[in-house]
Fold each of these.
Amino acid sequence: MQKSDKTRNRMRKSGGRPSSTISIIYHNSIQFFQIIGRIIIVRSQQFQFSQSLFNQPPKRLREIGKNINNENLKDNI
């Protein structure tokens, strides 16, 4: 009897749900990780953009691309 009274009081205090604190923590952690995931994705995109072959002009990029292709062809043969 005493145990059930305790749980009833706990449920009354927590708005009728005995595990409300656990569910609140669970939902907050999910939101937290979603936000962190979004930040990581945005940051990685920014980093890739800023590192795109050290922001070289288009003509130089074409030369680099040709050199890479030629080297790859040599390696394959």
Amino acid sequence: MSPKKRQRRKAAPQRPRTTDHDQAAPTGPDQATARPRTERTPLVLPDPPDKRLTALWVALTVLWALGTPLALANLLFAALDMQEAALTTGADPTAPAPDISSVGNALIWVLVLALVVPAASAVAAAILRRKIAAIGFTAALVVSAVPLFWVMPPPDLWDALRAHLSG
């Protein structure tokens, strides 16, 4: 700033610094109108969520979102292979029966990926007090369970699992 401009500006009147003792007993007209000094406390910012926890939610979401359709496709292809094997060996009574264990294994994968993964994830999110993750995994469980139980009711699923696991 040039010296001329410096001279033209008037200096702001400086208020005398007061302490707590001075504020307690105002004696002059200037001190009676002075505002009390505000206390300033530092603002505490919360830490961002742990990146490992976020990576866990992403991995579980990807496992559910990609695993469920792939397990359903595996179940479909296993059932189609069993039907094709039954049709080709239907004329020959001495041929071995088609292997049903592949269909049972595919059914177990569907149940694990469609029901167990989102249910366990929702419980873990609730225990860790992650409200949004718990809501999301509960919604994923509903999205998976409703069509699955509509196509095959739970008693039929239980009978199929019991038949597969008992041999």
